[in-house]
Amino acid sequence: MNRFASIFLLSLAGISTATAHHGLGFYNTTELVEFSGKVIEFRLMDPHSILVVEVENPDGTISTWDVEGGSASGIIGSGLSQEFLRSRPIVNIKGFQTKDGVCTPRCRAAGEAFDFERN
Q1: What domain count does the chain have?
Q2: From the CB of residue 23, how many other CB atoms can be counted at a distance below 10 Å?
Q3: Under a CB-based contact definition with an 8 Å cutoff, are residues 67 and 51 in contact?
Q4: For 54-112, how does the pLDDT look when each residue is reduced to its tens digit (9 = 90+)?
Q5: Statement: the pTM of the whole predicted model exceeds 0.90
Q6: Are residues 28 and 97 in contact, defined by beta-carbon separation less than 8 angstroms?
Q7: What burial class does residue 94 get, using C-beta atoms within 10 Å of its C-beta: 0-12 exposed, 13-18 middle, 19+ buried?
Q8: Close Cβ partners of 72 (under 8 Å, ≥ 6 residues apart)
Q9: In a 3-state reduction of DSSP, which class is residue 68?
Q10: What is the CATH number for 28?
């Protein structure tokens, strides 16, 4: 399996751009979270796009994560197409979870780095 690495959310769009818009005060930036899952939905929009990712937990349950990122133009400019995102790729994510850590109904995070798997 070939891997297509794309750091496209906060890092590609520019942390300063995201911070200028609303800051990272909503997120726990002292602890980086890492998880892998399947992209089940995406919303490419400006100023921040959202990836919705299904993650299988160690106990076999499924968590759904809304991961905020960069602009639609930045994401598409990085080489990720809507067609590819619709294919429900597996993605490995590093980012910052919200300070409250609440995952009901969904976990929320600000993405920092994404590594998409391609066949």
Answers
A1: 1
A2: 10
A3: yes
A4: 999 999 999 999 999 888 888 888 888 889 999 999 999 999 999 999 998 999 999 98
A5: no
A6: yes
A7: middle
A8: 44, 45, 46, 49
A9: strand
A10: 2.40.50.140
